[in-house]
Specification:
The protein has 124 residues and is mostly helical. Helices cover 68% and strands 0% of the residues.
Length: 124
């Protein structure tokens, strides 16, 4: 059993050694010039307009999470639509798939109404 996994073990070991070796080589032979400008945020050669470590409103994260939630749920519609188009001949399966699609879109709509009433999409 050990012989079958020996090649995989050697490949992982070589990959780890190569990655660690590159970091060590870069640390030893790399040139680092420490200055005030090297620690500043680079903005296309223009002088800084504001500090780099600035607080960001939580609204950005809420909108991001809502976008990801609805984006993933919309992606889940594609397999249902593909199966629905493929099974057009079977009336029972067609009705079941259509009912499932309506329920899924209804849940999305209820979620949209909920976040709209909570004011998550209103920017103040």
């Amino acid at each position: 059993m050990f012989e079958t996994y020996l090649s995989i073990f050697m490949m992982v070991l070589i990959a780890i050694a190569l990655g660690v070796g590159m970091f060590v080589f870069s640390y030893i032979f790399g040139y680092v010039k420490k200055s005030r400008t090297s620690k500043e945020t680079y903005e296309c050669g223009m002088p800084l307009l504001d500090e780099a470590q600035k607080r960001i409103s939580i609204r950005y994260y809420v909108v991001l999470l809502l976008f990801l939630l609805f984006d993933v749920e919309t992606l889940l519609l594609f397999p249902i639509i593909a199966v629905y188009r493929e099974m057009m001949g079977d009336a029972g399966f067609k009705f079941y798939t259509l009912l499932e699609l309506i329920i899924f879109i209804g849940i999305l709509f209820v979620g949209y109404i909920y976040i709209n009433k909570k004011g998550a999409l209103k920017w103040e």
